[in-house]
What does this fold into?
Amino acid sequence: MQIICIYLRFLQKGSDGMKLRSAAALLLALCLAALPGCTVRGEQEEPALSVVTSFYPMYVMALNVTDGIEGVRVDNMAGQQTGCLHDYQLQTKDMKNLEQADVFVVNGAGMESFLDKVVEQLPDLTIVDTSEGLTLLESGTGEEHDHEEDDGHDHGDVNPHIWVSISDCIGQVENLSRGLQQADPANAARYEENTRIYVEKLEALRDRMHEAIDPLPHKDIVTFHEAFPYFAREFNLNIVKVVNREPDSQPSARELAETIRLVEQAGVAAVFAEPQYPESAADIIAAESGATVWTLDPAVTGPDDKDAYLDAMERNMETLVQALS
It folds into this structure.
């Protein structure tokens, strides 16, 4: 309204062509000056439900469960290219984002080492732990550990890479869906329907992968990050060696030599690196042992696409068929 008034006062001073053109230019300039305030109003409107996910696998799950539901916004805290949250440090912008959130979706199982800090500072934030009720594996041993088990025994560090198993991913999706239905009961039926559609896709992919992988003659593999024990459990693969359990570390010369000897003795034909991390150590082992380096993707980075996990697992299936035939 203020812009229009200025414009009308300008016109009252004259109506010749020059002044009209000047008036039009003035109006355009004033509108452009006001444009940011006009155009972002819709973007700044508060969503009915603000969902923040801890990192990429949770983000892809949430995209599917919330697909097409108006008023629900999903943000990925750590970003698409962060990878696993090993030693991730919360930033000021992360806490500000969580302060505005209604729901924080986490992997659980120890992946988010900063979670206690979030709970302490934001005690009213609803946190959905997608690992609830799933049978977890202990890091380094592969032994199963019931998530609900609490017998006072030290079970060691739990392996948090649950989503890499399609069956466990389904369990996480269902946990996520239940959490959102409780937080937003008005859209419960929509969350339930989206979950059903996505779970059907995951189950169909799991069936195809079993058909392709189960008959393969070779099942021994070497990996370079402890991301695949859940995947191996599901598809009956035998991880002979995990060379460096933490992705940011590098194996020592002694560990490389031991791994080369193990690969040669066991007759392992395939060594699997990950697209998120350097292949230098894998290349050395392959060159010395005669094994071939392949790539398996734990789906911790990727595009802003709700089918990204499905696509990554399809590629993993194709890779395994080539590598283990």
Notes: Confidence is low (pLDDT under 50) at residues 1-15, 17-43, 149-156. Residues 188-213 form the longest helix (26 residues). The radius of gyration is 26 Å.
